[in-house]
């Protein structure tokens, strides 16, 4: 029996060494070491051995089994490495070939304008404040001197979620929230950029979702002249040229008095053209002195403190700044259009 085991060992080692792939190696494991394999078949004859021979043959059989397992394991590693090498060679990429240049993105023109607005006002000492886009009726209207049933609410046709919750129609709620957080302390000097929503029909100059940047200053002795000076300085920095500005009386429920600010046409210099409808002036924002009721409602003594507020549309400013005639270009994801602004 020992001769048969030795012969089996030699034959199995040769077969394992010559195995060409993993499937063949798996078959050899079953052939020699399986439950019905050749080694098991030989060991079934141990019942015919004498008690003295059984331990010797059993020990030899275990050595052969261990040796064959080791041979199979080593061969398996060898075949796996060879298979991996073959696969890598087949899937190799020639990295020396010229590749298509990646397409780089750029800042969206509206985002670029908002960043410019923020930079200008931060340079004037303002801080940037933000607030929720889903707002309560109180902060969006009532705290801004627009009680329920006020006719001025019709100016801002709104998206209501519930009777008391809506998508904000302006960023003015951020002003109220900031004033409340200040608890009557001054100075307050903030701008509030963000998205706003109104039920407008989308056309060349209107969108149901657009952007606003509003500003608020509260302190002792704040006057309309300071408002005009800050806004005139902003306009010149924004459009990069010396501009004339003028204030026209207007109406906003949360400011009194209220004004709209015009700038001399950036295209014709005030001579009159298609852009300014031959008036020489272009309206860019609304503003005014904060209404005493808004101050009092937010915890400020309107006898001691005054302030001004203003609001502008970055979308409209982008139209003017870059000579674009249709606001819808900003929202249609036209790559050809957006590539024009990659240098911003």
UniProtKB/TrEMBL annotation:
<dbReference type="InterPro" id="IPR002319">
    <property type="entry name" value="Phenylalanyl-tRNA_Synthase"/>
</dbReference>
<comment type="similarity">
    <text>Belongs to the class-II aminoacyl-tRNA synthetase family. Phe-tRNA synthetase alpha subunit type 1 subfamily.</text>
</comment>
<feature type="binding site">
    <location>
        <position position="256"/>
    </location>
    <ligand>
        <name>Mg(2+)</name>
    </ligand>
</feature>
<feature type="domain" description="Aminoacyl-transfer RNA synthetases class-II family profile">
    <location>
        <begin position="111"/>
        <end position="320"/>
    </location>
</feature>
<keyword id="KW-0067">ATP-binding</keyword>
<dbReference type="Pfam" id="PF01409">
    <property type="entry name" value="tRNA-synt_2d"/>
</dbReference>
<dbReference type="InterPro" id="IPR006195">
    <property type="entry name" value="aa-tRNA-synth_II"/>
</dbReference>
<keyword id="KW-0030">Aminoacyl-tRNA synthetase</keyword>
<keyword id="KW-0648">Protein biosynthesis</keyword>
<dbReference type="InterPro" id="IPR004529">
    <property type="entry name" value="Phe-tRNA-synth_IIc_asu"/>
</dbReference>
<dbReference type="InterPro" id="IPR045864">
    <property type="entry name" value="aa-tRNA-synth_II/BPL/LPL"/>
</dbReference>
<dbReference type="Pfam" id="PF02912">
    <property type="entry name" value="Phe_tRNA-synt_N"/>
</dbReference>
<dbReference type="GO" id="GO:0004826">
    <property type="term" value="F:phenylalanine-tRNA ligase activity"/>
</dbReference>
<protein>
    <recommendedName>
        <fullName>Phenylalanine--tRNA ligase alpha subunit</fullName>
        <ecNumber>6.1.1.20</ecNumber>
    </recommendedName>
</protein>
<keyword id="KW-0460">Magnesium</keyword>
<dbReference type="InterPro" id="IPR022911">
    <property type="entry name" value="Phe_tRNA_ligase_alpha1_bac"/>
</dbReference>
<keyword id="KW-0547">Nucleotide-binding</keyword>
<comment type="subunit">
    <text>Tetramer of two alpha and two beta subunits.</text>
</comment>
<dbReference type="InterPro" id="IPR010978">
    <property type="entry name" value="tRNA-bd_arm"/>
</dbReference>
<keyword id="KW-0436">Ligase</keyword>
<keyword id="KW-0963">Cytoplasm</keyword>
<keyword id="KW-0479">Metal-binding</keyword>
<dbReference type="InterPro" id="IPR004188">
    <property type="entry name" value="Phe-tRNA_ligase_II_N"/>
</dbReference>
């Amino acid at each position: 029996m020992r001769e048969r085991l030795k012969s089996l060992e030699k034959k199995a080692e040769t077969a394992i060494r010559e195995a060409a792939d993993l499937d063949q190696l798996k078959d050899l494991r079953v052939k020699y070491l399986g439950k019905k394999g050749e080694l098991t078949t030989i060991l079934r004859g141990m019942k015919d051995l004498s008690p003295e021979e059984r331990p010797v043959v059993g020990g030899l059989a275990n050595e052969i089994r261990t040796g064959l397992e080791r041979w199979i394991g080593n061969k398996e590693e060898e075949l796996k490495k060879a298979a991996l090498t073959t696969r890598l060679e087949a899937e190799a990429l020639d990295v020396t070939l010229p590749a298509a240049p990646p397409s780089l993105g750029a800042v969206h023109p509206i985002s670029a304008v908002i960043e410019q607005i923020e930079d200008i006002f931060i340079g004037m000492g303002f801080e940037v404040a933000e607030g929720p886009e889903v707002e309560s009726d109180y902060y969006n209207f009532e705290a801004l001197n627009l009680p329920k049933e006020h006719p001025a609410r019709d100016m801002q046709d709104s998206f209501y979620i519930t009777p008391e919750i809506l998508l904000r129609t302006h960023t003015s709620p951020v002003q109220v929230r900031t004033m409340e957080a200040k608890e009557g302390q001054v100075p307050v000097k903030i701008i509030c950029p963000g998205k706003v929503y109104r039920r407008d029909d989308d056309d060349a100059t209107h969108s149901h979702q657009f952007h606003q940047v509003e500003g608020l200053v509260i302190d002792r002795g704040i006057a309309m002249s300071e408002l005009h000076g800050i806004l005139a300085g902003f306009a010149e920095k924004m459009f990069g040229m010396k501009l004339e500005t003028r204030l026209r009386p207007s109406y906003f429920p949360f400011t009194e008095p209220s004004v709209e600010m015009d700038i001399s046409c950036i295209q014709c210099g005030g001579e009159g053209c298609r852009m300014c409808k031959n008036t020489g002036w272009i309206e860019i924002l609304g503003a005014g002195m904060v209404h005493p009721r808004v101050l009092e409602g937010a915890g400020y003594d309107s006898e001691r403190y005054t302030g001004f507020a203003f609001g502008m549309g970055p979308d409209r400013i982008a139209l003017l700044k870059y000579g674009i005639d249709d606001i819808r270009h900003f929202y249609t994801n036209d790559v050809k259009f957006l590539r024009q602004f990659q240098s911003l």
